[in-house]
Amino acid sequence: MVENKQPEKLAPVGLYARADTPWRLSVAPMIDVTDRHCRFFHRLLAPKALLYTEMITTGALIHGDIAKHLRFNDEEHPVALQLGGSEPKDLAHCARLGQQWGYDEINLNCGCPSERVQKGAFGACLMAEPQLVADCVKAMQDAVDLPVTVKHRLGLDYDISYDFVRDFVGKVYDAGCRVFVTHARNAVLKGLSPKDNREIPPLRYDLVSQLKQDFPDALFVLNGGLKEVQQMQAMANEFDGVMIGRAAWHDPYVLREASQLLWPEVAVLSNEAIVEAMMSYIDRELAAGVPMRLTVRPMLGLVNGQKGSRLWRRTLSDHRLLACNDSAFIRQAFEQFTDSQTVA
Fold first, then answer.
1. How far apart are CA 288 and CA 282, in angstroms?
2. Which residues of 223-255 are buried (b: 16+ CB within 10 A; e: fewer)?
3. Taking the chain, what is the end-to-end CA distance rounded to the nearest angstrom?
4. Which of 94, 110, 112, 177 is catalytic?
5. Beta pairing partners, 106
6. Is 38 noted as a catalytic residue in this protein?
7. How far apart are CA 197 and CA 137, in angstroms?
8. Domain 18-262 has CATH 3.90.380.10
9. CB burial of residue 36 (10 Å; 0-12, 13-18, 19+)
10. Dist CA 148 CA 95 (whole Å)
11. What class, spelled out in words, does domain 271-342 have in CATH?
12. What confidence tens digit (pLDDT) does each residue in 273-315 have?
């Protein structure tokens, strides 16, 4: 049974002014990070940002608990479902599930370099098979009337030629895809961990700029290496949007600051208001049987880099407090943090 209301559908990509697309600011899909609790928290920080699920494999949806994987909060809209897979028929089926559950976009992962996805023959290794990716995109587009987008890298291993990514994008573009989220690094499939793949291969923003020139009616959202809010604003103006990854997890306040810069007319919440909203959410989830440790976890970085942040993290990570199933300790922790700001 679908638990979420069907949202108003996004307009066709071509109808958006480039300065106001849903992709202007987004939070990257991150495995074991961007679950529905994290997305609820990120929505409080950035009212208009586009939020992505963790990558969900077609096998998990076809053979697993659909509700567990697809359930989300109405407050998360706009929210996109990222799928991992390489069988057009399976992806079409899962895209239909995503539409039935009320997601606003379906995204195909062609960028994850982990060994797990390589064993499944999807993720970044799909870039070596652009025709297959095109077939997958076409199958999903035929199955749903949502935007079908692709997240990809610039190349594989140590091939730094522009021709590779141009031909990949071109083949997928010919299948009808018009939104590309481009992580501006190569994916090294052997010898580098996923963490290393986010840091070691050099960033090449110039190649993403070239893609914009070569495919002028497609949208290119820049991902990779974006940590400073002024840089995010500049790149959102240069490209068709930016996608923030680990910075939104480790230093979530940058998401709020980026939102303020990109949408100055949209009010953002104070830390105090965010804490109160999260407490209400946590109480709601507790009533539904969700352990507090899952709902509190996204808040750990809320005050990163500020005096008192260590005590904040330690208190919110205290297993004894979490086991009490009483969100009041979060307000007390925030009051302690606030008091620490006034101590000379």
1. 10
2. bbbbeebeebbebbeebbbbbbbebbbebbbbb
3. 56
4. 112
5. 81, 148
6. no
7. 25
8. no
9. buried
10. 9
11. mainly alpha
12. 999 999 999 999 999 999 999 999 999 999 999 999 999 999 9
As beta bridge partners, residue 15 has none
Smallest Cα–Cα separation from 73: which of 245, 284, 268, 297? 284
Looking up tokens 């370099």 gives 113
d(CA 151, CA 122): 12
Contact 178, 135 (CB under 8 A): no
Rounded to 5°, angle at Cα 237 from 236 and 238: 95
The torsion angles phi and psi of 265, rounded to 5 degrees, stand at: -80, -10
Q: What is the CA angle 140-146-151, rounded to 5?
A: 65
User: CA–CA separation, 206 vs 224, rounded Å?
Assistant: 13
Q: Dig out the tokens for 250 from the structure.
A: 């480790």
**Domain ranges for the chain:** 18-262, 271-342
| Each residue's pLDDT tens digit, 213-235 | 999 999 999 999 999 999 999 99
Confidence bin at 8 (pLDDT 50/70/90): very low
